[in-house]
Amino acid sequence: MAGLLYKDFVSIGGKKLVALLSGLTVLFTVLRIAFPGTTDAAFFLVENEDGELINVLDTFFILGFSVFLIFLCSLLNGWVKKLVEGDEKTKIRGYLQALPLGRQTYIASKYVFLFASAYVFLSIAMCWNIIANAFCRKGVLSDALTMFNALVPSVIYVMLLSAALELPLFLTIGRARAMYIKTAIWLVIAFVLIGFLFFGDLEWISQHVNVFAFVRWYQNHQFAIAFVNILFPVITLLLYALSYRITCHFMARAE
How confident is the prediction along the chain (255 residues), in pLDDT tens digits per residue? Predict the structure, then answer.
């Protein structure tokens, strides 16, 4: 299986990606050390609605961390299509399945690769969060980063569940038809969001959905969040394993 995993690593441009993520992490660390939120320079301090002084630098680094997390999630979400597409274009899939390694090993390599990638991304995101929080001014923004530290694993697990839903489709019915289904689902979600923007209560959102409201919510529900963080990985692994079994079953029937 090691050869299959390396093949997938090459197909996503793994070496360039490692260099990019390493460079961004070093840059983020250097900038965070050079511009700490603990500075008391009046130019960077503003007062929030609760009368608490916050450092504008902290907000920039929290925004940067959020954008980076979205970037990692988008990578993981796009790799299902990219892995299958690469095999279809080179026609290597049929060749590999004819080898003694077997069909199940080929399928397992996709699941193992995405699971390992999710774990690496989770580790990198947690490192970014620790770096951002280490030089953050104590207060609501440091509380927000602490909240992110608890919620980031759940975000990665959700992306892993998304991969568990997509892999059976892409591996059994092919990339083209699977993309039609995926696009249709995203269009439905987009129409729902557009409808909410036109007819939803946007004023309520502007008043209640912000980082300070999330921090207060997190502080009031820490036990529930801790329980979810313990239970969610177990549920994710079980569903991920079930997805693998389903994919093997349907690919066997397709032959």
Answer: 777 788 888 888 888 999 999 999 999 999 888 887 766 665 567 666 666 667 777 888 888 888 898 898 888 888 888 877 766 665 555 555 555 556 778 888 888 999 999 889 989 998 988 888 888 777 766 777 777 777 788 888 888 888 888 888 888 877 778 778 878 887 888 888 787 777 766 666 655 556 666 667 767 777 777 787 788 888 888 999 999 888 888 777 655
| CA dihedral sign of residues 185, 187, 188, 193 | positive
Q: Please say whether the beta carbons of 137 and 55 come within 8 A.
A: yes
Residue 164 and residue 176: Cα distance in Å, rounded? Answer: 18
How far apart (Å, rounded) are the C-alpha atoms in residues 187 and 190? 5
Dist. CA 56–CA 46, nearest whole Å: 7
For 189, half-sphere exposure in the C-beta direction (CA atoms, 13 angstrom radius) is 6
Give the whole-angstrom CA distance, residue 248 versus residue 240: 13
| Alpha-helix runs per DSSP H in 35-91 | 56-90
Considering only the C-alpha atoms of the chain, give the largest distance between any 2 of them, rounded to a whole number of Å.
70
β-bridge partners, 53: 47
Judge whether 166 and 143 are in contact, CB under 8 Å: no
DSSP 8-state code for residue 102: -
